[in-house]
Each structure stands twice: as C-alpha cells, then as structure tokens.
C-alpha cells in the first residue's frame, strides 16, 4: 500500500509528539507551545510554557502571593477543563493531566531554577473520544486565564493533516480537520 507523503509526515509528527511528549520550542516569555496529536480516539495535548508566562517569575516562589500564584497555576493545569475544550459532539473525556514544574513544586529537593535563570512548565493532557470523527476544533483558553501569554503556537498532527496555527489576541479556536 502506498502512503501519501502528507499522511506519512503527519504520522511521523504524531509519533514524535507521542514519544517525546512535546516538540522542542525556544524559551520566549509570553509565548507558549502547544502540540496536539490525534491518533484514533486519543487526543494528546502537550504544553510547554516559560514560568514567567504563567506566574510572572522563573524561580521558586518566595512570598505568600507567589506561592498562591504557583499553586493556582498548577491546580488549573491539573484540572484543565476550563483551559481546553474539544467539540462536545466528539464525546471526549479527559483521562489524564500531568504537569511538571519542579521549580514551583513545594517539596524538599525541588529544583531552584536553571543556571541561565529560565524555568518552564510542561504539561501533557490526554483525552479519549468516543466519536473522534466529530473533532472539528479545539478551543484554547490559556490567554484568558494567564494574562502574560501573548501568543500560543499550536502544531496539530492528525490522521488527515498536519497544521500549524498561531493564536494571538482574541483568537482561541484551532481547527483539527482540513
């Protein structure tokens, strides 16, 4: 069977995203990278964001206000239903939400930040959809919640296509099918 080049490229991107959790993105304050991989009924969102874009600092929290900001950001990303919305017709349910931000974690031995002063948060959110053919769009509410986000760079790899979308300003919708 001959596989069209576009389908092969999309499959390679899906495999790369699923294997690594996210694609490499430069550390730019105000810019968040979001990778969306759709394979069968599974949708995986991989987020990478500078901590400055989420909480306004990139080190362990020092004040009560910073500790509250860190706890709030972690809680919102661990319960991301207000941040990401898939088409209700697709019958998707969240099956996991993993967040890694060692600098913000209040535990002994947590990282204090990188040598260059930059720190990031990575999240991976997975959904299972009972009707994946009904997936038309993903609504991204990150900039509504985290006011320091100016741009969300989104890469989508699905069974029919692969696309790249940049969300700025009031833009929130990412097409999932072409």
If you had to describe this structure to a student in words, what would you say it looks like?
- It is a single chain.
- The strands form two sheets. The chain has a six-stranded mixed beta sheet.
- The longest helix has 16 residues, at 5-20.
- The chain has 178 residues and is an alpha+beta fold.
- The protein has four helices and nine strands, in the order αββααββββαβββ.
- A hairpin with a 2-residue loop joins strand 1 (31-39) and strand 2 (42-50).
- It is globular.
- The chain has helices at 5-20, 51-55, 64-78, 142-145, and strands at 31-39, 42-50, 84-86, 92-100, 120-129, 137-140, 151-157, 162-168, 173-175.
- The chain has one domain.
- Helices cover 22% and strands 34% of the residues.
Strand-helix topology:
Elements: H1 5-20, E1 31-39, E2 42-50, H2 51-55, H3 64-78, E3 84-86, E4 92-100, E5 120-129, E6 137-140, H4 142-145, E7 151-157, E8 162-168, E9 173-175
Parallel strand pairs: 1-7
Antiparallel strand pairs: 1-2, 2-5, 3-6, 4-5, 6-9, 7-8
- The coarse overall form would be globular
Please, how many domains? 1
Outline the biggest β-sheet: 6 strands, mixed
Name the assembly state: single chain
The termini sit apart by 23 Å
As a percent range, the share of strand residues is: 25-35%
Radius of gyration: 17 Å
Give the ordered list of helices and strands: HEEHHEEEEHEEE
* Overall average residue pLDDT: 83
Helical percentage: 10-25%
Number of strands: 9
* Poorly predicted tracts of residues: 1-24
Q: If helices are DSSP runs of H or I spanning 4 or more residues, what is the number of helices?
A: 4
Strand order of the largest sheet: 4-5-2-1-7-8
Structural class: alpha+beta
């Amino acid at each position: 069977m001959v596989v069209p080049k576009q389908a092969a490229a999309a499959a390679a991107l899906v495999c790369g995203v699923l294997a690594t959790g996210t694609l490499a993105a430069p550390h730019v304050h105000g810019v968040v990278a979001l990778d969306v991989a759709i394979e069968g009924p599974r949708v995986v969102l991989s987020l990478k964001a500078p901590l400055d874009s989420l909480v306004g600092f990139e080190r362990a929290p020092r004040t009560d206000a910073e500790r509250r900001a860190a706890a709030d950001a972690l809680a919102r990303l661990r319960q991301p239903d207000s941040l990401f919305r898939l088409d209700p017709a697709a019958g998707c349910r969240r099956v996991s939400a993993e967040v890694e931000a060692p600098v913000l974690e209040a535990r002994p031995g947590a990282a204090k930040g990188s040598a260059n002063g930059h720190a990031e948060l990575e999240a991976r959110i997975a959904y299972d959809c009972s009707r994946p053919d009904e997936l038309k769009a993903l609504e991204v509410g990150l900039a509504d919640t985290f006011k320091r986000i100016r741009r969300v760079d989104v890469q989508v790899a699905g069974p029919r296509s692969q696309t790249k979308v940049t969300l700025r300003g009031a833009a929130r919708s990412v097409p999932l099918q072409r």
